[in-house]
Amino acid sequence: MSYLLMAIAGLWMADGLALLVAPLRIVGQVRQALSTSPSLTKWSGVSLAAGLILLFQASDLIYPGLWVVTGVAMVAKGGFFLLSDDETRHAVLQWCLSREAVDYRLWGLGLCLLSVLLIHACGWL
What we know:
Elements: H1 2-21, H2 23-36, H3 44-57, H4 64-83, H5 86-96, H6 101-121
Helix pairs in contact: 1-2, 1-6, 3-4
């Protein structure tokens, strides 16, 4: 199971570094991908599954409260994007994709921090 947690940490680190280095370029690519393939939001099931993995493993990790909160947030986000209607989903995505570059960099920094904390919690650091 620790390999799945490391995969989650790797995804967070990759996303976080991309948002730190080139936030507007990454958001532009996400915006373009969503416009050409609106069903891309159905990949939110991955977020939901990763959140469930975090919730089930939280008690075995250091900082269990952090992983419970993060897992619940991931499940809520994934569930929202899977179950919401197209209009609501589109409005939320437009709001998320219209932020300033500094906002994306802060999210990137947060994702990198979560990644390092998860790697530490698993005992790999």
